[in-house]
Design brief:
Layout: E1 5-7, E2 11-13, E3 29-31, H1 34-39, E4 43-50, H2 57-71, E5 78-79, E6 84-86, E7 92-99, H3 103-106, H4 114-117, E8 133-139, E9 145-152, H5 158-172, H6 197-208, E10 217-222, H7 223-232, H8 238-254, E11 264-269, H9 271-274, E12 285-290, H10 294-299, H11 302-314, H12 335-351, E13 361-365, E14 383-387, E15 395-398, E16 407-413, H13 420-429
Parallel strand pairs: 7-8, 11-13, 13-15
Antiparallel strand pairs: 1-7, 2-7, 3-6, 4-9, 4-14, 5-6, 8-9, 10-16, 11-12, 15-16
Helix pairs in contact: 2-5, 6-12, 8-11, 8-13
């Protein structure tokens, strides 16, 4: 069956009016934190699937978006330079679309056609004059709809974008203002992680080498396997179990040398740990690195892998330095990440590529960020999909619960095409 998605021409949605005394009017600036600078120009897409209809979803969400931008003015601005966002009020790019089919025909529980349902930036990375946010709302013949946002990671991390989408949903349902007061200025956010300037520069260089060389997979880690891992470990989180399974399966499929390094990295949301101001939607994350050889990852008991991940989570602040900006709490250490980036950068400069980067698996989780709490009028999404066009290294993202899936939905860009079969076979054998 031929399915057609008809898209309107993009329009710029601007804040619907100027809030009195906001201090965020046109021309004001928001400084980028050191963590914001690490991810500046990196595009990320989130697709929310709603199987319950609302009245005229395209216009309803478009109006609510304009209202939300009153409270989130930096979203409607532009990157001014490497240090700040200017609140120009130029707006975000918006497209309304309709699909000539029912929702289950185009958005099954397997691969989602992101190109049909989401806007993407014209270049591989976000450029200085680009909108900081692109949104597409697609209505299906059954009344279901999807909401896709693609944004420049400099303006918000995943937690921050989920907060913004929840605010749009509240305004779409008639609330006079979002329930969470947004904060974007790092100077008003309280304590934030601090990344040294050389590490920021190295991270930016690595992102320029982001490629499309990994196979895009939608895999499921079954609940039966997760329960078994949790039982073996005497209890652990879903993330710890899923990360350990993915780490083991990918290492067995990809790395043949047992002495080769096979580290795992994962981002941590630091808002609660550092006491950051409620409502802050800029980047407030640190990346933890778990060191291991391929042989130990492939052959050690699964509980050992879980324990390594757990210890890394528990020590995210323990090796920092006192006197982080705005607080006496320690700030996360970046020495191990800095050393990793130095090695990767040296490989790029010497050979143009760095084979060792393929050994580093990054596993993130969107399960507790709040994307699955967005409600535009008739309930929360039945599925949330994460998508990244390009990644600097192998990565997997555990998505929020998906209706109809007996397990944790994982969007994977972690193996090259020649390793897909081996990776899937390892998952099936667990």
């Amino acid at each position: 069956m031929s399915v057609v998605v008809t898209k309107s021409s993009p329009v710029l949605v601007c804040p619907s009016s100027e809030p009195a005394g906001s201090g965020n009017g046109n021309g004001s600036h928001i400084n980028l934190s050191s963590v914001d600078k690490c991810y500046a120009s990196l595009p990320v897409t989130s697709l929310l699937v709603f199987d319950q209809p609302i009245s005229d979803p395209v216009e309803t969400i478009k109006r609510a978006l304009a209202q939300a931008l009153l409270h989130y003015r930096p979203m409607a601005g532009r990157i001014a330079d490497d240090r700040r966002i200017t609140c120009t009020g130029e707006g975000v790019s918006f497209v309304g679309a309709s699909a000539s089919c029912a929702l289950p025909e185009l958005v099954p529980t397997s691969t989602v056609p992101i190109d049909d349902l989401a806007l993407q930036y014209p270049a591989p990375m976000c450029r200085r004059g680009d909108p900081l946010l692109l949104m597409q709302v697609t209505e299906f013949s059954c009344g279901g709809f999807t909401v896709a946002v693609t944004w420049n990671h400099a303006v918000a991390d995943g937690k921050g974008m989920a907060q913004f989408l929840q605010a749009i949903g509240e305004l779409a349902q008639g609330m006079p203002a979002p329930s969470v007061l947004p904060v974007r200025s790092p100077e008003k956010a309280g304590p934030l992680p601090v990344v040294p300037a050389p590490t920021v520069a190295m991270q930016r260089v690595i992102l320029r080498f982001a490629t499309r060389g990994k196979a895009a997979l939608d895999v499921t880690v079954p609940w039966s396997l997760i329960r078994r891992v949790k039982a073996d470990c005497g209890g652990c989180t879903v993330f710890e179990a899923v990360a350990a399974v993915l780490w083991r399966c990918r290492t067995r499929a990809v790395i043949s040398d047992p002495e080769a390094a096979a580290p795992l990295s994962f981002p941590c949301n630091l808002r609660g740990l550092m006491g950051t101001q409620d409502g802050y939607y800029g980047n407030c994350i640190a990346v933890q690195l778990v060191h291991a050889t391929a042989g130990s990852v492939a052959n050690d008991d699964i509980r050992d892998l879980v324990n390594r991940i757990r210890r890394a989570k528990e020590t995210v602040l323990s090796n920092g330095n006192d006197g982080g900006e705005g607080s006496s709490r320690p700030t996360p250490t970046v020495d191990h990440i800095k050393n990793l980036l130095y090695n990767i950068l040296a490989g790029f400069l010497k050979r143009g590529t760095c084979p060792s980067l393929y050994n580093v698996l990054s596993v993130g989780s969107w399960r507790n960020l709040g994307f699955d709490a967005a409600d535009f009028g008739h309930g929360t999404p039945s599925r949330v999909v994460c998508h990244m066009e390009r990644v600097a290294g192998p990565c997997c993202i555990a998505c929020p619960p998906c209706k109809g899936k007996d397990g944790v939905d994982v969007m994977s860009l972690c193996v090259r095409p020649e390793h897909v079969d081996a990776f899937l076979a390892e998952l099936a054998s667990m």
